[in-house]
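sorry for the late reply, my laptop died twice this morning and i had to redo everyting from scratch. anyway the thing you sent over, i finally got around to it. pasting the sequence first so we're on the same page, its 116 residues, then the predicted structure underneath. double check i copied it right bc i was rushing
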Amino acid sequence: MITIAIHGAEFFAYHGFYPEEQKLGTKFIVDVEVDFTPVNNLKEDKIANTVDYERIYKVVIAQMKQTRKLIETVAQSIADDIKTLYPFVEKIHVSIKKINPPLAGKVEYSKIVVTV
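ok and here's the structure:
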């Protein structure tokens, strides 16, 4: 089993349930981990024999650009797109942190995790 991961990808985006969140936007931190068993021999030294984390990052960029009310929806869409690109993956773990969520007090971040 191999794990490919991207940790700490930062985005300014407009996800949020409340209209002001979708107007003002905020910072998000995205982590993605993908577990898989290679379908071909890694000794061949070909990117086609693994999960390309650059392509994973591009999936994250595309989904973070699409404003949604729920970050759970964003995370699930990221996982779904990865599974479409790489049907042989066994587990996808996506976590999204919303920095300084609009709550009644000081909160560093809220976080959701989707694992498929």
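The CA atoms of residues 15 and 68 lie 5 Å apart.
thats about all i looked at so far, will dig more tmrw
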